[in-house]
Write a structure and sequence with these properties.
There is one protein chain. 0% of the residues lie in helices and 55% in strands. The chain has no helices and 17 strands. The strands form 5 sheets. The chain has a 4-stranded antiparallel sheet, with no helix packed on it. The chain has a 4-stranded antiparallel sheet with strand order 8-9-10-11, with no helix packed on it. A 4-stranded antiparallel sheet has the order 12-13-14-15, with no helix packed on it. The two termini are 22 Å apart. The N terminus is likely disordered.
Length: 174
């Protein structure tokens, strides 16, 4: 795996594959890569690529401002955030912002919550972790896949990014 500018390259059975992207994230088994593409005219989309076959799947049916896709531990779900544009990016398609989950085998992505960033599923496919700004601190919170059962797992004034382990018992904080 290598990155040159905005080009993400992965080496799989099909050889080296390069795609212009942002926010690459491997599946737990290393067989898929989730990422977001960006185009100043077409805006963004969320994709996965099967690193064994080279098959590319697009998981969003509308252009938008997407970020931080992550596959679930079992690989059945894809989470991502949708945020608004403006200033340097196009303001179009800025509605329905929040954290989304999508069944990678089909259907429409569903918004789980209106706030949060850097979503990912930790130890199971049922707890969605994310970062939120609460009480003047960066907090690690989780909700279930319906957006309920909000839990705060920790907070820090200096936290820039965090990730819950697939085991669900450890947290890495930068």
């Amino acid at each position: 795996f290598g990155a040159v500018g905005g080009c993400c390259c992965a080496v799989g059975r099909q050889g080296r594959m390069c795609i212009w992207d942002r926010h690459p994230s491997f599946s737990r088994d290393g067989k898929r890569l989730a990422f977001v593409t960006w185009d100043d005219v077409k805006l963004g989309a969320v994709h996965t690529i099967n690193l064994t076959t080279g098959a590319l799947t697009t998981h969003t049916d509308k252009p938008g401002h997407y970020a931080h896709p992550a596959l679930s531990p079992e690989g059945d779900y894809l989470t991502f955030e949708k945020h608004g544009g403006g200033n340097l990016t196009a303001p179009e398609w800025s509605d329905a912002q929040g954290i989304y989950i999508h069944d990678i085998y089909g259907g429409e992505a569903e918004r789980v919550t209106q706030s949060g960033t850097m979503p990912h599923l930790g130890g199971d496919d049922f707890s969605l972790y994310m970062k939120r700004f609460e009480d003047d601190k960066h907090a690690i919170v989780s909700v279930n896949l319906l957006g309920h059962d909000n839990r705060r797992h920790g907070s820090s004034e200096m936290d820039q990014s965090d990730s819950v382990s697939y085991a669900g018992s450890e947290v890495a904080i930068q």
